[in-house]
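Technical appendix A lists one of the benchmark inputs used to test multi-chain prediction within the project. The record comprises two sequence entries:
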Amino acid sequence: MSAEIICVGTELLLGEILNSNAQFLALELANLGIPHYFQSVVGDNPTRLKQVLAIASDRSGLLILTGGLGPTPDDLTTETLAEFFGVPLVEQPDVLEDIAQKFAERGRHMTPSNRKQALIPKGAEVLPNPGGTAPGIIWQPRSGLTILTFPGVPSEMHQMWRETAVPFLKRQGWGKQIIYSHTLRFWGIGESALAEKVAPFFHLTNPTVAPYASQGEVRLRVSSRAPSQAEAQQLIEPVVEQLREIAGADYFGANSDTLASVVGQLLTDADQTLSVAESCTGGGLGQMLTAIPGSSHYFLGGVISYDNSVKVSLLKVNPTDLQKWGAVSKPVAKQMAAGVRSLLSTDWGLSITGIAGPGGGTETKPVGLVYIGLAKPDGTVECFKYPLGQNRSRDSIRYASACHALDQLRRRLIIRLNSLL
Amino acid sequence: MSAEIICVGTELLLGEILNSNAQFLALELANLGIPHYFQSVVGDNPTRLKQVLAIASDRSGLLILTGGLGPTPDDLTTETLAEFFGVPLVEQPDVLEDIAQKFAERGRHMTPSNRKQALIPKGAEVLPNPGGTAPGIIWQPRSGLTILTFPGVPSEMHQMWRETAVPFLKRQGWGKQIIYSHTLRFWGIGESALAEKVAPFFHLTNPTVAPYASQGEVRLRVSSRAPSQAEAQQLIEPVVEQLREIAGADYFGANSDTLASVVGQLLTDADQTLSVAESCTGGGLGQMLTAIPGSSHYFLGGVISYDNSVKVSLLKVNPTDLQKWGAVSKPVAKQMAAGVRSLLSTDWGLSITGIAGPGGGTETKPVGLVYIGLAKPDGTVECFKYPLGQNRSRDSIRYASACHALDQLRRRLIIRLNSLL
C-alpha cells in the first residue's frame, strides 16, 4: 500500500508559493519507508478536489492532504472530504474550546468563521495543531483507506506530522521497512559517460542505483530497503565501494559534501593554505570556499582582479603579456595564480580568467572560454583551458568556472595525498 | 481549455529537490492568462506515467511535462509518451548533429546513450534546447490536445519556455486575456511595515496588489487583466506610481532589477568606480556586482581579506586597532573600506566584516553581527552596524550582509543624484 500527497491551494496554482510541503512530506515518507508514487496539486475548488480524491483513493491507501483548513470561505478541504465520503460534519466541543483559548491567549477576538474549524467529519479523529487554530483529521472513511489532513502553514504542518502523524502511522504498521540512501557526487565527467561506466548497476533492485545531473555535477543515488538502518546500510556499502572504484578521481564526495568542503578537508589534512585571484567569477570562488564553516583555517583570502589594472598592480601580471595575449589567456592565468600565492604567502594560489558573456566574445576567444591557473607549493604553475560553450548563461559559466577551479585543486591535493601513503 | 503541469522524476518523490519547475510554470501560465487547475508529480516509471497521462489528457487540453529527457535508462518521458499515443519514435538528424556539436564544443566525448535524445515521436516537432543536449517536443497527438516537454534542469527549461513555448502558445491562440504584472522591489523595510503603509491597495481588484517577502527583500506584485498589453499597463501605472511614492527610498527597483544592477546603473550615471573589501562574505559582494553584464565599467575589483593578515598587509588596517577592537568592529570596517578605495584608486570603497557563524560568536559580538564600511568620493568614511540575528543560517547572514552593503551605497548614490537635480 502506498501513500499519496495532495496539496490544496489556489496560491500553488498561481505560482505564488513554492510547494515546500510536498518536499517535506516526500522526504518524511522516504525516511519511513512508505512508498509514494503520486503527488497532486489542486485549487480551493470542491468539484476539482473531489475529482482528485476519486483518483487518489482508488490507487493509494494513505492520502495526505495539506491546505484548505483555514477559517475563510475558500478553505474547503474538510467539508469536501465529508461530502465526498457522504458523511456529515460534527462540531467538536473540545476543538472549539481550544480555538477559543488560543484567541484569548493572543488577545484577539474569535470570529464566527473560526467556529467552522471545529467541524470534522463524523467518525474522524482530531489531529491536534499545537501551533495554530486549524486542527487536522485522522480518518479511515473505509477499510484500507486512511486520510490525514494538515494546514498549509509549513511550521504547523511539520509539528503535527512529527508529534501525531508519525506515531499514528507507526502504530498502524506503516514504515516497517527503512529506505536508506547514499548519494555519490562526481565532477569532471558527463552524465552519459559515467552512466556507461556503471551501466550494470542500474539493473540492481536492492539497492537501486540512479543517476542525476545538475549544473555540471553528476550524482548517483544508491538506495536500499531493509527492516533496519544497519541492514539497509550493509546492502549499500559494497555497491558504493565498487562505484567509487570505477569512477576513480571523478568521484569527489558523498551526500552533503561539496567541492569546496572536500578541498577544505584536503587542505586541512595537508596543513596547507590557499589564496585566489578571480577575474570573471568576481568573487564567486572565494564565496564558495568561505561557505564552509571553519574555512578561515586554510583560506586566507584573495584578489578580485576584475579590471586589468588590478591584475598588474596587485597580482604583478606582466603588462606586456597582458597586451600580447589578452586577459583571457594562459600566461595571464598563470601569472595571476603565482601573483596571489606570493602576495598572500600561501601554499597554493588558484586563479580564474574567462569570458562569462553575454558580450565580449570574439572569433578566437568565444564566450565561455576560461583559463584556470594553479600555483603549487613547489612554486611551479599549471594552467587548464576550458571551452565551456557559448550557449550557456553568464551565471552558468561563472559557476562552472569556480567548480572546475576547485576540482583541479582537489585532484592535485589527492595526488599529493596518495604519494604520501 | 486548461493547462496541466506534470513533473516527472523519482527525485521529486524522494523529496531530494524542491519542485521549483511547477512554481515557475504556474506563474508563467498565470501571466499568460492560461487557466490551470491540476499539477501532478510522478516518478520515472512508464506504467504510472501512463496512468497520469490518461487522467490528464482527459481533463486538460495542454499538458506541460518536465523531466525525464536525459540520456540515461531511467529517462523515459519521450518514449512513454510515444507508447501511450501508439506512435513510433523517429531519429531526428538535425537534433543528433546539434548534440554532437555541443559535445565537440565542450571537448567531451559523445556516447551512444546520447543518441537516444535525438529520438522524438513521429509527428512531433522539436522544442530546441539551446542550453543543453536534451531537446523537448511540441506535439499535437490528437485534435484538442497539445503536449510540451522540457528537461528538468530549471535554467534549460526556462530558456526553452520563453524562447519557443510562449510564442508557440500565443500563435495557437492561448492567453487572449493578457495578465500583466509589475513587481516593485524593496529593501530596508519589513513585510508587515510596508503592508501597513500600503494597506488600502490590497482591496483593489484590477489591478490587484499582493505582497511577498523573501530573504529580507519585500516585493509588491501589481497585476492587471485586460484585452491588450497597453490597456493592462495603463491600469497598472497610476498604482505603481503611488506605491513608489509611499515607499520612498525603500523602493529600489522593478521586475528583474537587483540591488547590484541598480547600484551599477547609478554608478554608471555618476561615472564613478567601486572596489570592495570582504571578510565574512568572502567574495559574495563582488560576485553579486559582477553578475551584472557590463559591470567592468564601474567595478574594478577588490580584496578578499578573510584572514586578518590580509587586512593588515593589503588594506593597511592598523594592527593595533585590529588587536584592540577586533576584526568585527567599526574602526576595522572603516579602515577596510578606505584601504581598498585607496589601493584600487576608485571613487567608492565598500567593506563588510562580520560573524557569519555558526561558530565564532561571543557575548558582546554574537553571530550575525556585521559592520559595513563605505569610503566615499570625498575621502570620508561611514560605518553601519547590523545585528542580523543569531538564528539565521551562515548563508542567510552572508547574503543579507552583501545586500545591506549594496543598499547603503545605493542610498548614498541616490542622495548624490538628487542633490544634482
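Chain A touches chain B through 96 residues (CB under 8 Å). The two ends of chain A are 51 Å apart (CA to CA). Comparable benchmark entries are summarised in Table A2.
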